[in-house]
């Protein structure tokens, strides 16, 4: 794969990642996100329902923890998880952990990491990790990593050990990668660890960059793990050490405000799990990302999403109705379980082109949620995915016309 940057402004990178996939037929615009899946399927959606959405990311993320239990079946199947799961034409990226799942810590050794399936813990050596990759057949994947140093107050000694182990795992992965016929067309991303210790982050980035990797995974920056200022400083320290021509994928960050901050720190790719988390709490993304037109063209454009809906920002509603707010709800979403939507006959977002917004009203989604109908998840997932992809599209457009600050102001409004 090849990253072609069309613009770099104060660390923000706009471009296209081309040549992804076995025949190099896929490309992905950056900054962008991958398509999130669990057990290699987008939660709540069939492939046909999913493909009612336009402009889906060209790369689907599968997670080793959700597939590890099916390793023997996949190995016997021999044609990889893309065919096994009936995925349409897409490139595949395989990560170690599901970014939307929490897994128990404390099970890492010098030679192994653990993932958790429905049947419990599965311990992986590098050999087993690579055998699983050979059965999954991704187009690119992260190397095995010790990613347990994201919690604040992890000791310097433990962080150093995580960096050393992760580099050792990468070296071992690279040796096996080149020996494995099934992975001949695939590429490896090296993982940058280092917790919240700047020197270890820099060391991890420098050493990983010396290896023959196709790109970099920035691990241990999860939303809950650290303050945004510290995260931005550390990511900037890391990306400064990385070669310009290779992509940087950030794990575990999906909130729109945090995405923008991380793009400013030099990140290219994100995991697309945020719409799924919003769906699971019965919420709909409704934040505004459409920037007001230039003064020269003012007055000729249609009203923006929230203006046309007559909405006040969702965060104000939260304060009014704090009791019914689901835990972890962000300012970017509406809680459709709230009784205020029982007789709200507006679409989730006025002007949204998704199937849900074109065919259904908020009152109906509210009804589906309170009666526990599975269709609620289907409709919310469709809308939330569409809205989130629209956010990334608008982010790239704003960067292209040098209006990232306006865009940021609009999203944070
Ligand atoms: Zn919609």
From TrEMBL:
Binds 1 zinc ion per subunit. Residues 299-327 are annotated as: Disordered. InterPro entries: QTRTD1, Queuine_tRNA-ribosyltrfase, TGT-like_sf, tRNA_ribo_trans-like. One of its GO terms (molecular function) is metal ion binding. It is found in: Cytoplasm; Mitochondrion outer membrane. Residues 299-311 have a biased composition (Polar residues). It is a peripheral membrane protein. This is Queuine tRNA-ribosyltransferase accessory subunit 2. Residues 13-412 form the tRNA-guanine(15) transglycosylase-like domain. Non-catalytic subunit of the queuine tRNA-ribosyltransferase (TGT) that catalyzes the base-exchange of a guanine (G) residue with queuine (Q) at position 34 (anticodon wobble position) in tRNAs with GU(N) anticodons (tRNA-Asp, -Asn, -His and -Tyr), resulting in the hypermodified nucleoside queuosine (7-(((4,5-cis-dihydroxy-2-cyclopenten-1-yl)amino)methyl)-7-deazaguanosine). It comes from Pygocentrus nattereri. The keyword tRNA processing applies. Gene3D superfamilies: Queuine tRNA-ribosyltransferase-like. The gene is QTRT2.
């Amino acid at each position: 794969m090849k990253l072609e940057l069309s613009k770099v402004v104060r660390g923000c990178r706009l471009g296209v990642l081309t040549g992804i996939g076995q025949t190099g037929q896929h490309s992905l615009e950056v900054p962008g996100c991958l398509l999130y899946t669990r057990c290699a399927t987008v939660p709540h959606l069939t492939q046909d329902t999913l493909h009612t959405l336009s402009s889906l990311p060209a790369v689907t993320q599968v997670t080793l923890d959700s597939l590890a239990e099916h390793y023997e079946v996949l190995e016997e199947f021999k044609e990889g998880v893309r065919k096994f799961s009936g995925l349409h034409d897409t490139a595949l990226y395989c990560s170690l952990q599901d970014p939307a799942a929490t897994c128990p810590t404390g099970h890492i050794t010098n030679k192994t990491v653990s993932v958790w399936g429905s049947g419990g813990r599965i311990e992986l050596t590098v050999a087993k990790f690579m055998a699983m990759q050979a059965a999954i057949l991704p187009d690119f994947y992260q190397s095995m990593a010790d990613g347990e140093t994201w919690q604040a107050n992890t000791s310097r000694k433990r962080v150093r050990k995580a960096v050393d182990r992760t580099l050792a795992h990468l070296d071992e992965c690279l040796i096996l990668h080149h020996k494995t016929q099934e992975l001949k067309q695939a590429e490896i991303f090296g993982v940058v660890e280092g917790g919240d210790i700047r020197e270890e982050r820099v060391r991890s980035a420098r050493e990983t960059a010396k290896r023959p990797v196709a790109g970099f995974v920035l691990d241990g920056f999860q939303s809950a793990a650290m303050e945004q200022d510290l995260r931005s400083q550390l990511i900037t320290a890391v990306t400064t050490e990385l070669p310009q021509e290779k992509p940087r994928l950030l794990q575990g960050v999906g909130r729109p405000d945090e995405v923008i901050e991380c793009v400013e720190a030099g990140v290219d790719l994100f995991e697309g799990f945020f719409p799924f988390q919003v769906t699971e709490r019965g919420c709909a993304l409704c934040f505004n990302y459409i920037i007001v037109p230039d003064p020269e063209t003012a007055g000729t454009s249609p009203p923006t999403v929230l203006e046309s809906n007559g909405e006040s920002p969702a965060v104000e509603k939260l304060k009014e109705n704090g009791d019914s707010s689901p835990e972890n709800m962000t300012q970017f979403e509406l809680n459709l379980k709230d009784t205020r939507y029982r007789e709200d006959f507006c679409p989730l977002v006025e002007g949204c082109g998704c199937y849900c917004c074109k065919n259904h009203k908020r009152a109906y989604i509210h009804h589906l949620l309170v009666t526990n109908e599975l269709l609620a998840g289907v409709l919310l997932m469709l809308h939330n995915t569409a809205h989130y992809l629209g956010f990334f599209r608008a982010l790239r457009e704003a960067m292209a016309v040098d209006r990232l600050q306006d865009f940021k102001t609009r999203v944070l409004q």
